[in-house]
Amino acid sequence: QVQLVESGGGLVQAGGSLRLSCAASGSFVSINAMAWYRQTPGKQRELVAVITSGGNTNYADSVKGRFTISRDNAKNMVYLQMNSLKPGDTAVYYCNGDIILGTLQYGYWGQGTQVTVSS
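Request: output the structure for the sequence above.
Response:
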């Protein structure tokens, strides 16, 4: 069974930093793209950042220059370094991975980790 488990969320003051981690475990062939999404109550889940297996990245305009996504393919981990945090970054952050099982690709989600930025 494949699982994605996030960690690293918490409460931080505006201007501070947090680093989120996401670990993929289970039996799978490989992982293609991995991404971080976030969601606030009453709103749709939005893409924050994505990284391909080759290391290409893309970011939401709202976080460009402040957040950095990275991954460790050997450890099946993806990270999100969040700097210069703003109250508007407050959300539940979810890890997402495109995981290869056999010859097919499936999308998996973590359970989410709360990030709260106080003003």
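Residues 9 and 97 are 19 Å apart (CA to CA).
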